[in-house]
Amino acid sequence: MEEVYDVSFPALGLLFKIKAIAFEIFDMQVRFYGLIFAFACILGLVYVMLRAKDFDLNREKLIDIIFLSLIFGIIGARLYYIVFYPDIGYYFKNPLRVFYLNQGGIAIYGGIIGSLLPGVIMCRKRNIKILPALDLVSIGLILGQCIGRWGNFFNQEAFGTQTDLPWGMKSQSTDGIAVHPCFFYESIWCFLGFLMFHILSFRFRKYQGRIFSYYLIWYGFGRLFIEQLRTDSLLVPGVPWLRISQIISLFSVLLGTIMIIVLKRKNLNNFFRNEKIKKFTFKNDVS
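The structure assignment produced for this chain is given below.
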């Protein structure tokens, strides 16, 4: 059955007819959600590969690590969604639906958590500097997130509560009520983050790990507020008012802040040690 949505932004005079399914191959439906997700991954990977030398990273080693992290990231994103899915017994009764990734049902926080540890381990094994790798990958990641959120538009999901704002969105999925297009908010937030981190990576990368720390704070802070608007949030089991993404967002902001404090202090300590060495060497030269 073809899924077609009449999506409108009445106050802006915009109307779109959106198809969720792009095409079929051997009776298998390929959705725009999956195509956009794939494009977002490729775009983020291309950015990382193009900038690898700027971060003094080996491309061949880095791409192996990214592919492995991506596999674990997809698994983590899916497991996160399944664990916190409102109907707890749904996937136990329908185990094959675990593999229906083309229909959606992944969570970015699960993907980040799932890919981070394998990525760090592989960096150590392949002799890749961890903090510069995290800095670079975080820029590619937020670029991919900016694009990937538009998959929610074609699936008509990840929208928010009713609104009277000029950009309120209506469709069959919103029951004809104008709602917050939360996927759009997050896409714009991620795009602004990408621009900021991209510029920082050229001019203000004073210490390793800075951009990754800023990523944790930037995305966590934005997601904290955007999530509050959404009507399809994954909740903590048994606590119907507590959104799991907001908990992780708070933790992300806190972790990023701690990292900045620690890395700055470490950088300053190294600076003063170097100054002492220089002064000592200068004294010896004079004598």
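Interim note for the steering committee: The radius of gyration is 22 Å. The chain has one domain: 4-155+162-286.
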